[in-house]
Amino acid sequence: MKLEFRPLPYETDALDPVYSTKTLELHYGKHHRTYFDNTVKLVKGTEWEDAEVEDIIRDAAKSEKDKKLFNNAAQHWNHDFFWESMARGGGGEPRGEIAELIRRDLKGYDGFRDSFKKSAVEQFGSGWAWLVLKDGKLQIYSTGNADNPLVKGGHALLTIDVWEHAYYLDHQNRRPEFADAFLDTLLNWDRVNERLQQAGSAKPSKGGRWQLEGAR
Ligand code: FE
């Protein structure tokens, strides 16, 4: 089986006090763990037993009868993506290639910040907000429940979990406050830049560095 419950990329107290140890222990150790355990149970003895999680998600999304598997596998993938979207001492204005693309496609950092926060806050009910690279351009959108860019499209670069379990202990019902904390103190821009590189190498242009063509 290729499914793996990966360790967090930091200690559970690494994001204190912004993202508390208590929240991280519960969110990673209970919520994420349950999605992972359910996925393992659901693929056992099926055609997906040795499949990559991305393939399981794309396949299961095709049929309503596989909705339970889709929800659990996608939530497992989304949470891994979310943990890596945060780092101690993160947040603020970006550096590197992503900064250039944000200037080109999203009206600069303020445009990015407003749009990402709006997407996170206005997602009705549980879900996620995403920054993706789609058709060579940055895009921001939100998804409901377990949905993600593997089915909605685009190469995912960044996400924030806006299910209540992601922030309720630290911020109660104040989702905008959590979005601000994420954007200003947690967002891992280095990881976003790495993901951008992966997107570029997956789809290079003749001249290379395709994602920045037209930016200059
Ligand atoms: Fe969550």
- Ligands: fe (iii) ion
Give the helix proportion (percent range).
40-55%
What amount of the residues lies in strands?
5-15%
Low-confidence runs (pLDDT<50, min 5 residues)?
A: 202-216
CATH architecture annotation name of the largest domain: 3-Layer(bab) Sandwich
Multimeric organization: single chain
Question: How far is the N terminus from the C terminus?
Answer: 45 Å
Output the CATH topology of the largest domain.
minor pseudopilin epsh fold
What best-fitting shape do the alpha-carbon axes yield? globular
Q: What is the total number of structural domains?
A: 2
- The number of E-state strands comes to 3
The CATH homology group name of the largest domain: Iron/manganese superoxide dismutase, C-terminal domain
CATH class of the largest domain: Alpha Beta
Largest sheet: 3 strands, antiparallel
| H and E order | HHHHHEEHEHHH
Derived structural class: mainly alpha
Name the strands of the widest sheet in spatial order: 2-1-3
- Total helical segments: 9
Rg, alpha carbons = 17 Å
Average per-residue pLDDT, rounded, comes to: 93
